Amino acid sequence: MIVYALPVDRGILGLSRIPGLEGDFRGDVEHLKEWKPAMVLSLVTDVELVAAGAAELGRLLVEAGTRWEQPPIGDGAGANEAFDAIWPRISENARRALVGGGRVLLHSRRGCGRSGMVALRLMIELGEAPDEALSRLRGVRPCAIETAEQMQWARRARREPAVFLRHDGER
């Protein structure tokens, strides 16, 4: 399992395929535990988790001390009303982890469309310019964001004002 990672704010944002997709669920989970994410967002349906042999993923991550969320979103889809309803809470937790220097892992089936959509949204919400954020994201994961619907949702993000650091590291 490969985690495609990039620095975002003071933390690290990672994208990956669904653990177990290539047949080594236990090995993938161990790799994730070693990566030590503060939060994992499983951007897949229950059916996709079962098909990949990953039905236990949430329980195993929570037992390891990782915050786990599985917002409702299907393959190839953008955000729906149910996703939008819980997004503010999920986003706040993910942004808090990144600003605090933590790691956040996003996975979808292949780690491209849905993961890319959420990654770009978080990057913009944390103050990055949309075009630069997309370029950085695709520099690490070229397949990030696969549909116009996913791109539109990501770019609807409310961008936080940029924070400038003085040379002494203070804000």
Word description of this protein:
With 171 residues, this protein is of the alpha/beta class. It has one domain (4-155): Protein-Tyrosine Phosphatase, Chain A (Alpha-Beta Complex). It is built from seven helices and five strands. It has a five-stranded mixed beta sheet with strand order 1-2-5-3-4, with helices on both faces. Helix 5 runs parallel beside helix 7. The protein is globular. The model has no long low-confidence stretch (mean pLDDT 91).
Short description:
The chain is an alpha/beta fold.
Summarize the SSE layout with pairings.
Layout: E1 4-8, E2 11-16, H1 25-35, E3 39-42, H2 46-51, H3 57-63, E4 67-69, H4 81-99, E5 103-107, H5 113-125, H6 130-140, H7 148-155
Parallel strand pairs: 2-5, 3-4, 3-5
Antiparallel strand pairs: 1-2
Helix pairs in contact: 5-6, 5-7
Fraction of helical residues? 40-55%
The top level CATH class name: Alpha Beta
**Major sheet attributes:** 5 strands, mixed
- The amount of beta strand, in percent, is 5-15%
Over the alpha carbons, how many angstroms does the gyration radius reach? 15 Å
Report the CATH topology name: Protein-Tyrosine Phosphatase, Chain A
List SSEs in N-to-C order. Answer: EEHEHHEHEHHH
pLDDT below 50 for ≥5 consecutive residues: which ranges?
Answer: none
Protein traits:
171 residues; alpha/beta; Protein-Tyrosine Phosphatase, Chain A; 44% helix
